[in-house]
Amino acid sequence: MKAKHVLVLVDWHPGTNTFPVFKKNFDEIRVLGGPFLKGATSGLQKVLFRWSMYIWVGIKAIFLSRNYDTVIAFQPVCGLILGSFYRLFNIKSKQLILLNMIFTERSSQLYFNLRKNFVRWVLKTVDGISVYTTGEINSLAELFHYPKKKIFLVRQGVRLNKAVNRIPADKLKNYIFSAGMSLRDYSSLIEAVRTLDIPVKIVCQPYNIKGLNIPDHVHIHLNLWGEEVVTLRRNARMVVIPLLYKNISAGQYDILYSMSEGKAIIASHTVASVEHITDDKDGFLVPCRDVEALQDRILKLWNNSHLIDKIGSQAQETFNNNFTFEVYQQNVLSNLQNL
Fold first, then answer.
1. Are 309 and 215 within one domain?
2. 163, part of any domain
3. Taking burial as the number of CB atoms within 10 A of a residue's CB, which of 18, 149, 230, 253 is the most buried?
């Protein structure tokens, strides 16, 4: 790929220097996003506003893409919407790349098949896909009948407004922090701490904890967003990221933001977590849904301030060397050259 003029589709309001590495390597780059999330207050509003943004960005890209060699969809849903119009009206003449592709199963087989067939149909217009984990290269190629040579691995990187200093263990507050909505296993976390005298703060949505018997020392924060979540995470003694399925990619953002802050992390061992955490070096991995293993790791880490500092410091170093947004952009560029 030797694009000179590139349109990038994102699901946030782009700043003036959103993709600095891209800007150095392309003659022209325009980042298309939208500020729609600012007015949302509830979880439902955020979902509706986000999908409004996906559709708005995808439709606007139809008219803008004629001025660019390549469209790179950092938010793949925006790219799928654009690709669907390409297919419907047979107007595609530009290279279309989807980054950060994830496809998760759903409880309804009908819904899963509808989504699968829609994506398979749209991918006829797509020239390349990036995934977060090695295993997804084979699984997506098989699921969508898509050429494996057009799927490439780029481990996730996250954008930080500014670098943060790690808080040493003796300054942290005595609680465990856990957050996230996608494929979380809060049932195992709650059972792991049920008999422990350790406070836990969980940021989630009502459906994540539906039907669970929650003890008094486990505090649930519903519909919490932004800086309030960051503050809770930064001040926690440790972060636990419990995930349901070993073979489905989830939890990367929470892992990486926690690593960037120098947190000691315990995460479920999945195809995604192993791409970011090296067990016993910059975090800890336990088998999915293994309550006993999770409880054992929490107990070993909770009272060991030296270990919390050691693991947290190494996690931050790993993030700075491998998972910054600048490193992510460079990895994308390297792979695009081979398409």
1. yes
2. no
3. 18
